C-alpha cells in the first residue's frame, strides 16, 4: 500500500504539505525536512545503523544498503512499519548506548555485539548474526597471523567497540593501539602505512577489503578470536524485544535471512561460520 513512488522532491514536499495540511509553512519546496512523513500520517521509526561499513550498513547517496539495513527493514516490516516510515540514523560505535538512552533512535542494527556491560545501560533482542574478531593487514604482510603477533605493532580499532576493548584487556602489552571513530578511517591508516593492522569483526573487515579502492592492498587474516553476537539494541524497559525476536526467528526459518546475507555479504567472499549461524535468539531479559 505504501509503496515509495518516484517523483521530484518538490512534488513529494507539496504532497506532504497537502496531506498533513500543516499550512503556514514557508519551507522551500525542495526541503521536505529530515522527517519521514508517511502518507497516512502514521508514526515513523528511527533505526540506528552504520553509514560506512560496506555490505553491513552503508549510506550510498540517498540509499542505505547492507545486511544490517535489510534485516532492519525486514524486522520493521513485521512490526508494521513500511519503508517510508523508517528513518535511518547514523550510529557510530561509541555513540550507540547514548543514542538509545536519550531516545534519539528506537532501535539499532549496527554490528552491535551483545555484552553484559552494555546490558547495564541498554537491552538487546537477537542475536541475528554471529561474527568473530579478526585482523586486516597489508596484502604482502606475512608477519601477522593472529593477535599473538601484534607485539611491537601499530594497530587501529574503533573507540567504543568490543574490538578495541578486547585488545586493551587481553593483548595490550607491547601493542600500540590507535583508536579512530570508524573502521573506514582505520583502513586508510593501514593503506597509508600509518598502522600495521586493523582489528574488528571479520564480516566488517571483509566488506572493507572488497572495496575497489582497497582491493589487492589488504587481506583479512582469517583467524577469528572472539564470538560477536549481533543484537538489536533497544532502550531498557522497551516493549518490542519479544516481537523482534519472533520476527528474526521467522526471517531465519523462511529463508529470508539467508537471502539477505547472500545478497549483501556474498560479494566480499566472506563465509559466515556455519556452526554459529544462523543463531538462535536469546530470551528477552
Ligand atoms: N561488534 C563489535 C562491537 O559491537 C565491533 C563492531 C562495531 O564497532 O560495530 O563493538
From TrEMBL:
Gene3D superfamilies: Periplasmic binding protein-like II. Residues 44-263 form the Ionotropic glutamate receptor C-terminal domain. GO terms for molecular function: ligand-gated monoatomic ion channel activity. SUPFAM superfamilies: Periplasmic binding protein-like II. GO terms for biological process: amino acid transport. One of its GO terms (cellular component) is membrane. Residues 44-268 form the Solute-binding protein family 3/N-terminal domain. Keywords: Signal, Transport. Residues 1-23 form the signal peptide. SMART domains: PBPb, PBPe. Belongs to the bacterial solute-binding protein 3 family. This is ABC transporter substrate-binding protein. It comes from Cellulomonas cellasea.
Amino acid at each position: 500500500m505504501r509503496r515509495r513512488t518516484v517523483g521530484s522532491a518538490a512534488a513529494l514536499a507539496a504532497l506532504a504539505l497537502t496531506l498533513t495540511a500543516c499550512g503556514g509553512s514557508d519551507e522551500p519546496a525542495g526541503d521536505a525536512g529530515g522527517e519521514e512523513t508517511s502518507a497516512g500520517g502514521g508514526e515513523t521509526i528511527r533505526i540506528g545503523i552504520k553509514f560506512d561499513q560496506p555490505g553491513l550498513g552503508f549510506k550510498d547517496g540517498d540509499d542505505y544498503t547492507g545486511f544490517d539495513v535489510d534485516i532492519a527493514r525486514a524486522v520493521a516490516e513485521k512490526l508494521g512499519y513500511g519503508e517510508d516510515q523508517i528513518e535511518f540514523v547514523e550510529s557510530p560505535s561509541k555513540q550507540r548506548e547514548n543514542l538509545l538512552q536519550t531516545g534519539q533512535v528506537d532501535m539499532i542494527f549496527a554490528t552491535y555485539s551483545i555484552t553484559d556491560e552494555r546490558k547495564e545501560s541498554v537491552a538487546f533482542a537477537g542475536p541475528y548474526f554471529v561474527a568473530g574478531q579478526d585482523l586486516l593487514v597489508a596484502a604482502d604482510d606475512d608477519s601477522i597471523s593472529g593477535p599473538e603477533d601484534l607485539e611491537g605493532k601499530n594497530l587501529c580499532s574503533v573507540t567504543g567497540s568490543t574490538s578495541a576493548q578486547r585488545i586493551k584487556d587481553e593483548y595490550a602489552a607491547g601493542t600500540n593501539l590507535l583508536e579512530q571513530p570508524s573502521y573506514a578511517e582505520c583502513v586508510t591508516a593501514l593503506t597509508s602505512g600509518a598502522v600495521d593492522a586493523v582489528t574488528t569483526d571479520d564480516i566488517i573487515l571483509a566488506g572493507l577489503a572488497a572495496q575497489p579502492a582497497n582491493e589487492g592492498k589488504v587481506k583479512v587474516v582469517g583467524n577469528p578470536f572472539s564470538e560477536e553476537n549481533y543484537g538489536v539494541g533497544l532502550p531498557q524497559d522497551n516493549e518490542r524485544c519479544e516481537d523482534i525476536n519472533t520476527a528474526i526467528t521467522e526471517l531465519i526459518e523462511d529463508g529470508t535471512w539467508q537471502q539477505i546475507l547472500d545478497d549483501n555479504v556474498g560479494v566480499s567472499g566472506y563465509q559466515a561460520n556455519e556452526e554459529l549461524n544462523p543463531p538462535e535468539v536469546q530470551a528477552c531479559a
